[in-house]
Amino acid sequence: MYAITIPEPGGPEALVWAEVPDPVVGEGEVLVDVVSSAVNRADVLQRQGFYNPPPGASPYPGLECAGRITALGPGVTGWAVGDEVCALLAGGGYAEKVAVPAGQLLPVPDGVDLTRAAALPEVTATVWSNVFMVAHLRPGETLLVHGGSSGIGTMAIQLAKAVGARVAVTAGGPEKLERCAELGADILIDYREQDFVEELHKATGGVGADVILDIMGAKYLDRNVKALAVNGRLAIIGLQGGVKGELNLSALLNKRAAITATSLRGRPLAEKAAIVAAVREHVWPLIADGVVQPIVDRTLPMSDAAEAHRVLESSGHIGKVLLQTPVD
User: Fold this and answer.
1) Comparing C-alpha atoms, which of 214, 218, 239 is closest to residue 51?
2) Can you say how many angstroms the Cα of residue 259 is from the centroid of all Cα atoms in its chain?
3) Cross-strand partners of 89
4) Contact (Cβ atoms closer than 8 angstroms) between residue 284 and residue 85
5) Residue 328 pLDDT grade (very low, low, confident, very high; cuts 50, 70, 90)
């Protein structure tokens, strides 16, 4: 098969479409012929040499895919050859084939074509696990989403609105904020021109956000705590603004607030399977009903993954950037 390889870490040009051995299907796994994959920030970090795959995972980038099952490993039940699926991966999505633990498979939801289904596994699993399973966002509460126009952000807006929450977003510029508003965001903050703490307090009468979904890390840590409501929950899922920051613990204590920080890729298989099962139970019906949809900025040939990475790094996209395998 062919896959995107990284012979040496570096810029987008480090991504090389090359012939590699086919994956071997192990116990409890299925083999998927990949139709499409999606680009995530973790892929960029892996390309740069900062985020290696967990032990035993495919060395190729790609944390999600969509395609068709072509083989079942020992012990797999509930799936059949020919099933159209999308999948959460620890790696290997930028390839023509990938071996996937059966617990990380999802059927392609009704109303979504197979190519676009690759935009769903990582964002739905990340948002549902952090905003709902960990931070327990409830109807009537306010969620602040940093990077509201990203793949994660566009999904977080939709899911929060679907459960009856109020949504505030930060994004860069009027076009991105307008798209967030179309998806249901109630409070629109241009982080380039406005202070999100001040704007959020204005919009909430000084209360703040009950839950904050943060991709920035250190750069926003102090301001995120200031933006939290009493009993608020800050969920950190990215470190685009650095890894080390100072925290006023007194402010956290006074608000009886909590901070969590999670990643998805390196979790044990059982934890990933539990998250995927929760997504199938709670999110898939919303997609089938048209309440939630994958937001796709563009689709590029997988062999042109370098250009996809350039798009992601320039932050010129809204929603997900997809990669499509060659059609026979």
Assistant:
1) 239
2) 19
3) none
4) no
5) low
**216-244 residue pLDDT tens:** 988 999 999 999 999 999 999 998 888 89
177 alpha-carbon distance from chain centroid: 19
d(Cα 192, Cα 238) in Å, to the nearest integer?
A: 19
Relative to beta strand 296-301, strand 187-190 is unpaired
Query: Rg of the chain over CA atoms, in angstroms?
Result: 19
HSE, side-chain direction, 13 A CA sphere, residue 58: 32
For the chain, give the secondary structure using H, E and C: CEEEECCCCCCHHHCEEEECCCCCCCCCEEEEEEEEEECCHHHHHHHHCCCCCCCCCCCCCCCEEEEEEEEECCCCCCCCCCCEEEEECCCCCCECEEEEEHHHEEECCCCCCCCHHHHCHHHHHHHHHHHHHHCCCCCCCEEEEECCCEHHHHHHHHHHHHCCCEEEEEECCHHHHHHHHHHCCCEEEECCCCCHHHHHHHHCCCCCEEEEEECCHHHHHHHHHHHEEEEEEEEECCCCCCCCCCCCHHHHHHCCCEEEECCCCCCCHHHHHHHHHHHHHHCHHHHHCCCCCCCEEEEEEHHHHHHHHHHHHHCCCCEEEEEECCCC
Contact (CB, 8 A) for 100 and 272: no
Over the stretch 29-69, which tens digit does the pLDDT of each residue have? 999 999 999 999 999 999 999 999 999 999 999 999 999 99
pLDDT in tens, 64-84: 999 999 999 999 999 999 999
* C-beta atoms surrounding 315 within 10 Å: 15
pTM assigned to the model: 0.96
Residue 93's closest CA among 301, 302, 293?
A: 302
Residue 112, beta-bridge partner list: none
